[in-house]
């Protein structure tokens, strides 16, 4: 599955490059009024556990998640409920995401926005910047050590942050060696879709306290959050539970204060 997504993403990048070359994107970035001030990392640096709320229409493991996908209002509700940041899926073929969702959401909320996609080319980081994102996801399993290091540097030059996603000790070591300052452990195994939040708890001890540690996927209850908090997790990334909840405000408050 992951290989298929990567392949399709590479095709998408080469199509986009035909419309706007990388040089053209860089030129645009220099000519728009953008800030270079790392808001994503700042938003996750509070004392309490931070919630990154995800705007997600569908996924390969769950199919269609949101029948009613009023994405700008969903993002505004997340913000009003106290989410620290918003994650927006932009991958179109497997997650029914869109760059347009990200662009419109970033314009309509004040909290920082993460571009959730399968970055396989530096081009996608420049695109993310132009769309209004403050951060990108870098999945260690699909990038070489050199790419990780290079892409982290690009995000820094652009005033952005990167979550480096890891699934095991080896990927965590690679993330840290590449210079990651935010590490996310995906509780969902992208190879077989199985979910276990103990995965991030187990791997927490492999990451120093000065690196922001995020637990991603499969988080459903305030008990899950309490357990993650107890284990020094700095932030959680939650999609499906929030997308399926009819009152996102109540849900986020319950998760945060429960
Ligand atoms: O909907 P969930 O189980 O709460 O998961 C959200 C988020 O962690 C998940 O969408 C995700 C984490 N890492 C990814 C990488 C690619 C695509 C999606 C993801």
Automatic annotation (TrEMBL):
The keyword Lyase applies. Its EC number is 4.1.1.48. The keyword Metal-binding does not apply. Residues 2-255 form the Indole-3-glycerol phosphate synthase domain. SUPFAM superfamilies: Ribulose-phoshate binding barrel. CDD domains: IGPS. It comes from the Archaea. GO terms for molecular function: indole-3-glycerol-phosphate synthase activity; phosphoribosylanthranilate isomerase activity. One of its GO terms (biological process) is L-tryptophan biosynthetic process. It holds the Pfam family IGPS. Pathway: Amino-acid biosynthesis; L-tryptophan biosynthesis; L-tryptophan from chorismate: step 4/5. Keywords: Amino-acid biosynthesis, Aromatic amino acid biosynthesis, Decarboxylase, Lyase, Tryptophan biosynthesis. InterPro entries: Aldolase_TIM (IPR013785), Indole-3-glycerol_P_synth (IPR045186), Indole-3-glycerol_P_synth_dom (IPR013798), Indole-3-GlycerolPSynthase_CS (IPR001468), RibuloseP-bd_barrel (IPR011060). It catalyses: 1-(2-carboxyphenylamino)-1-deoxy-D-ribulose 5-phosphate + H(+) = (1S,2R)-1-C-(indol-3-yl)glycerol 3-phosphate + CO2 + H2O. Belongs to the TrpC family. This is Indole-3-glycerol phosphate synthase. The lineage of its organism: Archaea, Methanobacteriati, Methanobacteriota, Methanomada group, Methanobacteria.
